[in-house]
Every structure is written in structure tokens, then in C-alpha cells.
Write a structure and sequence with these properties.
Blueprint lengths: L3 H4 L4 E8 L9 H13 L2 E8 L5 H12 L5 E5 L5 H12 L3 E4 L4 H6 L20 E3 L5 H7 L12 E4 L5 E3 L18 E5 L2 E4 L5 E4 L1 E3 L7 E6 L11 E6 L6 H6 L1 E4 L2 H10 L11 E4 L7 H10 L6 E6 L1 H6 L1 H14 L2 E7 L6 H6 L6 H17 L4 E2 L19 H13 L16 E2 L3 H13 L1 E6 L2 E9 L10
Parallel strand pairs: 1-2, 1-3, 2-8, 3-4, 4-5, 10-15, 15-16, 16-17, 17-18
Antiparallel strand pairs: 5-6, 6-7, 8-9, 11-14, 12-13, 19-21, 20-21
Length: 482
Amino acid sequence: MSSTKMTGKSRERMAIIASYVEGETYGLLGPQMAATVIEENTAYDCIVIAVGREDNKVLLKKALADYFGAKRPIIGFSTLGGREDLFSFARELKDEGALTILAGPQADVDYLGETGWQNNRHRFPGLSKSFSFSLHGPAEQAITLLHNLDKDEWRDNPGLLYLREDGTMVQNPKNDWDERFLSRVEWDNIYRMEGSGLLPHKITTGQVLQHIGCPHAARGKWAEIDYPASVTGKGAHKVRLLFKGCSFCDVAVDKGFYGALSMDTVLDQISCLPDTGDGRKVPFEMINENPLPGLPGLLTEIRDRGISPSQINLILRADWFLKGKERLKEALRLARDMGVRIILSSVGFEAFDDTILHNLNKGLTVKTNLEAIQLMRRLKEEFPTEWGYSRSDGAIHGFIHPTPWDTEETWANTQKIIDQHDLPPDVLPDHSIPLIIHHASGLGDWIREVEKREKVRFRRYVSVIGWWKEESCQGNVKINSN
């Protein structure tokens, strides 16, 4: 452990543990930005530890003990992706005397537990036993918390959730976002388990925050969602709910749509990115669900500031991609002059059947998805060097399968579209992603309503509702396992 923050003795220490997938090149923007805020505004050094499922937790615990030494461990957990092994690890550390803090997306609802769990024993009871408390909202709320840990004032900290000694829950309102804390990220503060110790993890793809939340989640929309196909004999039944964003998206519930950050804040973030060997910035993903209207202006500002990016990765909805065609072409012409590549790294197609798209509340159709694919392919002919969108360019587009609404008809429709438009070579990923229903997503409300109406229980996998395995409460409804 060669860095001063791993060996220095003068400051207090904190670590943030986050989920990691083996081979991932991206940094962890949220945890790494939080660690930057903490280190620059408190008396604490703070590192991020990216933990894969395959990592040995015994060795990780030893590495944490080496890092903290005689100091009490203060360990945040963020961006956990529903991983039960990390929830269990947090509880183990807490029981051994560490201060464990649940933070990041869905920190409040995962600490509180699923709606109605107190009266429904099969529902997710929350993570209050695994974590000392939860901190929901902007990372800078940790500044006052860390300043007041040894004082009674910590109980009034914005965004804090904790249990009183009598078992009642306290939930303090969170602060709004403050751009002053969103302009800098130290990208060299992340570590991985290597052998029996922690070693710096090199980031080859960064992220830049431009939008907080998603415009699709800015306003509510009523939708009628079909019953699961596995609830036999109920195919015509629907559940009417108000959604903000896609029905499966828990991030939309967590953040809604705050809006755009200023150009100066975004440019400062880009300036913080690591350099490549040729002096350019590493490729980065633009966190903005609708980046095309402002992309030419951003590239112009980047050029005028003397910043040299190598590649910008975009994530887009199919309909917003189509609407932004002319602005994208303008951006690609700028990119050609600047020697920059623009990669459409992910489009949330999600499905190629209108019934399933409706139930996902995507707000678009198969026709829209196909028009977007045609445009992606045409742009490659016009801008062969500057533009990328395909698997060979590193793109992974969204394709959700299976879902609760799969039938022989929906799959036949999907397969017909896939074959007619030759989607596997350039558009479809190697593997589809099964629909994941987080308990606090819109589909969490949907599945609880189905349970109530039909007297069925869907199995919980910690914070995830397993729609693919069901058992009857009273035995009067036939439930099929997928």
C-alpha cells in the first residue's frame, strides 16, 4: 500500500465499499465523488474499495483492519446492486464494532424496508440490522455527520435514517443538490483486493455527471399493467398505477429529475478525468439521458478550453435519439475536426414487442426502436471513424428478457423482429438481462397489488422481488414457476 492515504497517521479514516463486476473498466462515479467530498471537506482520508462477488471476505476484512489500524472502522456502502453478500458483510462488520453506513441510490427505502412489511412477513424487512444508519441524498451531508459523530448533533443530520433504542425509525429530510460539491472527482482513490491486500485500481473509462435523474421521470403517467402471464386464467386483468419513468426503474423513484448541471461544473469534471498516454482524457460516459440537444455546445466548450477528450459514450432512449438527429450530426462534424469518437454505448430498447414495452412503461413502440436502429446504421456509413454504436464498438444495448408477461405470442413477435432486422450481429447483447423488480420501483407496487388481489406471494430475494417464483398463499390459485 504505497499511497500516503493508505499509510499516513495524522488523519481519521473512512472507506466506502461498492459493488464491482470483474473486468469492468468504468470508475464508480458516485462512490468516488463521495470519497472526494469527504476527503476535501473533513478530517478523514477516504478510499473506495470495489468488491466483486468472487472476492474473499475474510481477506477483505483483514485488509480493512490493516487500513484502519487502531482507529474505529467507519465504512460506507454504496451502489450495492442488491448484493446479499455485501449486506451480510456489512452486518458482520457492524456486529464487530464498525460504524456501517448505507448510502447511495435507494439508501432510504432499502433501510426502511418494503412497503407494508410489518404486516406481511414475506416482504423485505429492510437493512436496519445490517447498518448503523443510512444516509440518503447528496454526499456532502456526510461532512456534518462526520464532524458530529462524537456529539448529539449527529441525530439531526440531513438525510439520516436510524433506529432509536425503542425501535422507532427516524428519517430526517435530505438536502437538495449543491453543485459546489459536484465539480471534482479524484479518480485515483479506488482500490481492489489483490492477493491479501488492497492495491490501486486503474480507471480506463470515467463518467461525467450532466443530468441528475431522468426527464422521463419528471412527470407522472397513469398506465394499466397486465397481470403476470404465470397467474393463469387472469390474462385480461390489469393493474392501474401512476408511474414516473419506466415501471422497473428504481432510480427514477429515487431521484426523479433534478435537472441539468451548469456547463462549468461539467467541464470541471471532464478536466478531472485521468489522462491517457497520448495526453488525451480517458473515454468517459456522459450521464445524461438526453444529451444530444446540448452536445455540440459541450464539444465547442471542450475545444475552447483546450481539453482533449478521446471518446464520449452516450446513453439514450430511442425516441430522444431520433429527435436529436440533426444536433448529433452537428456534434459528429465537430468530433471529426477534434479527433474525438462518439459512441452510442447503450440504448434502452428493452424489448421488441409492444405489449412488453407498454408494461415496462417505456413510452415508445417497436417502430420507434427500429427507426433508431436504422438511423444508427446510417450514421455509421456517414461518419465511419467518429461514430460507433455496435457490439464491436463496445456498446451494450438494453434487452430485457425474460419478463413476467412473456407468452408464446410475445416471443414469436420478438423473434420475428430480430430475424427480419438482423439484430444479433450489431445490436443485441450476448445475453439478455432478466427483469429485476426492486421493491421500491413502480413494479413493486404492481406486484404487491397482484398479491393482494389474488392471494399469492412472490418470493423476496432481499431487496428484489422474484416474480419468476411464486407460491400460493391459500392454494386456490395455480402458480407456474418459470
